[in-house]
Write the structure tokens for this entry.
Amino acid sequence: MKRIFCTICLLAVCFSFAYAQEKTDPEKMKKERIANMQLNLKLTPQEAKLFWPAYGQFLNNEIKYHEAYKKNLEKRGIKLKEPGKNKEMIDKLSEKDLAYLQDQKFELRKNMHNLELSFYKKLKSILTPRHIQDFYNIDEKYKRDMISKRKAEAEKKKAEGPSPVNPGVKKR
């Protein structure tokens, strides 16, 4: 169980960085995650009554931590793009800014770890071990599907080639 939990936490942290750096609407992402969970997690009415507010609070805190991470970086003039496209920008950072970026990443990791741990403890008081396992399996699958979807979209964009500079003007 510890191994599964650690794996899930690791995936959550990895997804967190992708989520924090993506140009997506956090509220939209939250709604998608809730809808996916509602569709796949079969809860008793008693469990649902306690689970959904706790899950909503968890997602709200997750969004809050990611937004704080982005704001802290932007205050310092550090604006990250989507994952994998930051090498040039990071290479240009001063030693101080690079140290600040690293500190912020670890602060986000720490906050996410504490949030996950707190939520897990809440889950233990709400759900059966089987439902907890189902929850984490559903969440992990959703995150993997989202990452695959984004990769496929990125590859599709790359295959289409660069967009024209000014598509409304015809060459003579």
About this structure: Residues 95-126 form the longest helix (32 residues).
